[in-house]
Design goal:
Blueprint (H helix, E strand, L loop, with lengths): L1 E3 L5 H7 L4 E5 L8 E3 L1 E4 L2 E7 L10 E5 L10 E3 L5 H4 L12 H5 L4 H17 L6 H11 L8 H8 L1 H10 L4 H14 L9 H16 L5 H22 L4 H12 L4 H8 L2 H9 L5 H7 L13 H13 L5 H4 L3 H4 L24 H16 L9 H13 L1 H16 L14
Antiparallel strand pairs: 1-5, 2-3, 2-6, 4-5, 6-7
Helix pairs in contact: 4-6, 4-7, 7-9, 9-10, 9-11, 10-11, 11-20, 13-20, 14-20, 15-18, 18-19, 18-20, 19-20
Length: 425
Amino acid sequence: MLFRSLATSTGWLRDLIGTRAVASPLTLQGGVVHEVPPFESGGAHVGAWDTSGLGLRHSPWLIYPAEDSAVLFRPMAWALPADPELDSAAVEPVAVPAGLDEAMLEPNPLGRWKQMHAVMLSMSEDLQHVSWPMLDVAWQTFHHLPLTALDVWRVVAKQPKAVLAFLLRSELPDADLAEALRRFRNETGWVPELTTIADLFAVSRALWRFWSSQGLAPERARTYFNEELERRFKLLAAEIPSLEPLLDAVLLAATGQASALLLEVARLRTGDLLKSLWDGAESLVNSQLFLVNSDRGDWPCRDFVERLALPALLQDCPPSLGGALAPHLDKLFWSFGAWKGYFGRQFSVNAQPDFKFSAANLPVLCALWSATSTSRQWWSDPHHRLALRQIRDFDPVWFEQAYRHACKALMSINGLIQLGQITEP
């Protein structure tokens, strides 16, 4: 058997000799890498590679360029012929597979995707799941490839809680985890600023269950849990500084230790925090967004927040939070013309949103989404996520700073962020 990846035109011929193709089993946890030898004719490379050494036992394989390959080509899944009736079978509801490797062997693409998602949900709740080592091996083996080359990373990125669980459970070095976080943000659809306080609480609870089930004395288990949670959250905050307020809030619930940031928030009033965000020449929005971008005419998605995103949030936001949020709603956003009838308060509606409205307000809206753990179903629409990315990329520094500042303001609202006991039995 052979596969062809490269044209054999004159321009390619000189690079063929330096092209190295390798293959690894997608479902084997041992990190095995096989060299895929080239075919030659009369001692000359013909632009094809021999896959006869890739056995059925470990199928499917991923064939991809070695790290030192002179030419890069698109990774491809290589599966040996299976039962054609099985390949064409309709997807039927099935039980959650025991492991990620079993889900990846499902021949039907839709069925495989659903099963992998189901396993990943289970893994996020159970940090002792048998499939966790498989993700570490996948990173170590395929880390030089785009994350989107492997279904497993695309599935992880689809579930914000799974990204957090991977961070807490992985045994990779901190440098690799930091790189993974950066690449999830840059190469996949993961949006850190849509991480909710409920996500952070759930994975922290999962980490506590992991340590409390190790057969250790209760105080020792709590010590290891506290140290590990703090270390991993610090790593996350170093890579995604905008999440630090929410991370500190969960750490307080878990360990009882208040950070300097939380002590600062405790001394400030919500109105003062919002005033420093929006009001006056020295405000954050003026100094970090308006002045910096005063000569730009390409402000993105002019009415996205006012016409789409904000109504979606207010419609889906848990009603129980209305009492805490309503007194501050008209001060949370810049140039807020607002909305009628939410949380029992009446506002006028902007007839025409300012062209800067979305860029200014979307980071605050995302912070509100995160702090209230509002359902993210609305964000599953790819057009909505594209608009978010366009607005964030317009000025990433502003987006990060505004989100972080808004989280601090929201944390200062009494009763808005509510966390249970993380380390209870």
